[in-house]
Automatic annotation (TrEMBL):
This is Adenine DNA glycosylase. Its EC number is 3.2.2.31. It catalyses: Hydrolyzes free adenine bases from 7,8-dihydro-8-oxoguanine:adenine mismatched double-stranded DNA, leaving an apurinic site. Belongs to the Nth/MutY family. The keyword Nucleotide-binding does not apply. Gene3D superfamilies: Helix-hairpin-Helix base-excision DNA repair enzymes (C-terminal), Hypothetical protein, domain 2, Nucleoside Triphosphate Pyrophosphohydrolase. Residues 239-365 form the Nudix hydrolase domain. InterPro entries: DNA_glycosylase, HhH-GPD_domain, HhH_base_excis_C, MIG/MutY, MutY_C, NUDIX_hydrolase-like_dom_sf, NUDIX_hydrolase_dom. GO terms for molecular function: 4 iron, 4 sulfur cluster binding; 8-oxo-7,8-dihydroguanine DNA N-glycosylase activity; adenine/guanine mispair binding; metal ion binding; oxidized purine DNA binding; purine-specific mismatch base pair DNA N-glycosylase activity. SMART domains: ENDO3c (SM00478). It is an enzyme of class 3 (hydrolase). GO terms for biological process: base-excision repair; mismatch repair. Its cofactor is [4Fe-4S] cluster.
Amino acid sequence: MRHRAPDLYASLLSWWAHHGRRDVPWRLLPGGRQPGPDDVLPTYPVWVAEVMLQQTRLAVALPFWRRWLDRFPDLASLAAASRQDVLHAWQGLGYYARAQQLHGVATQLAAAKRQLPADRAGLERLSGLGRTTAASIAATVGNSADPILDGNVRRLLARLLAFPAPPRQATALFWTMVELLLNGRRARDFNQALMDLGALVCRPRAPLCRCCPWQRHCHAYAKGIQQQLPVRPTPTPIPRFVVGVGVVLDRQGKVLIGQRQPDGLLGGLWEFVGGTQEPGETMAATVVRALWQNVGLAVAVGPELLRFDHAYTHRRLSFVVYLCRPVAGDARPVVNQQVVWVWPHDLHRYPFSAAHIRIIQALRERSGQT
């Protein structure tokens, strides 16, 4: 590997110069110019982008990044924003803890009258940043000699070596490889080139080996096993739950929503009230029980609005949603931070998760709204 490193390095950067994603906005100088080796880019836009890119593809993250920078152009404006405004700006991107981490870091730094660090060690001390994300930010901002090791790079190196085990079983080896390949040179470009090669050519399925600058060095390609690698760990069974949800409309036509507690999954987002179905329980009974336990409201369950499946990282949910009307009790926040009655046309003012946005859309379609 050591004797091939200079060739791998040179061929990758040559490929990237012609085929890489060189127009990523947070990697450019004002006016859209490519930065030189000694240029320093602003940290804030890069930090936001790299956090968004955790668990999210570039094409998906880019429009969110643009809207975020329009709304929160700097650290001070993010620190001054409310949590609800931050979650609303993040709505639809998923993994909402990332948004809360950005906001938390901004408020902490603002309170301490400090700026974002630009070095890897300082960045790693911030909430939500591991070694790879911190290294990517540092190298992009200041061209520091910090290599990265994300999922794209692990896959790329596993195929290059025809590595016979899951890459995470040899993390130290893979870090040694990227350090050897980089050798302290042009980290800003080299790291992006690695990510681009993994995303555009050495794809998870159907890799485009004919386009790969590393083809002649690739052991997996030589053995014809590139589509079988990287070796995946034995998957953990993902549990599935059925959730009954009540869209409760009062006599005026207002709908009941609750805000989740700030910590935990989807913390701070708004939702329609529901609960997980228990053994032997009908879906209607699940909805009645959930509304009584969660907000102290007795309801009559009406027609089914919709049903759909939604996948999270560690669980699968099947939602069954009913229209309901209140018959007794006053809604109060037993489980949620707060509960409110709102007009359906005002639901867009509140940040919801992707699953509950589907419910809003179904409610609008039923009422004839667009």
